[in-house]
Request: fold
Amino acid sequence: MAYSDRPVWRFENAIVREPSASAVDGLRAVDRGAPSIDALRAEHRAYVDALTAAGVTVDILPPLEDFPDSMFVEDPALVFPDCAIALRPGAPSRLGETARIEPVLKARFPSFHTLPCLGYVDGGDILVTPHRVYIGLSARTDRTGAGALASILADTGRAAKIVATPPGILHLKTACSLLDGETVLATRAMRDAGLFEDMETILVAEGEEAAANALRVNDVVLLGSAFAQTRSRLEEAGFDVVGVPVEEVGKLDAGLSCMSLRW
Ligand code: CIR
Reply:
């Protein structure tokens, strides 16, 4: 049963956090060179502009120098129109980001929940669809954290499904994103994992795996601007695509969902 009549990709508000100068030292699985801070800032501005053009009011939080990955504000929290849930990021260097976002959320949401001090969940491992909230187990999200989050979600009237993110993928949403009520965009590895048995899948083009972290916002799909073949696939399927540059954030294993909390 759907928990709301409002489409889960309909967003009026978003929170982002400006990249800190330390962002160039952000975590990455494979070092393809440090991103340039100026280029990171430019990508962040383009992202804010794309959200704004899609009809979202964007609140920009100041940078946190002590937390190089804090521009990826999706990871320490999960938000819905009616409530916010503070999470516990699974990377030790990111755990303290939660305390920095908590007051911001408490001031904006009518209801606020906290993951108990056991287990870990990164927001990048959560895919919200109209019928359920998928929680992907990963190197950052463990069973204890996922179970605790599922129980908070149940208290808010939402069904959760805990799934296993295929190995070698940072977050569940690194390799998939919601396009509409019936469709996800996914890499072949994610499609083959068979996690979304009741959803149609549009595959990203081979060699464009990073395109899978796209972001459906209101009437458009934000997609990394370098991913021309995936863009054609989405346009052929009838989606209105807006390209956003993500080359530098890609060096930090991040993409388009990671840079905002949306409701
Ligand atoms: C990290 O490894 O935590 C950051 N460098 C990238 C976080 C990406 N966030 C996301 O996919 N939600």
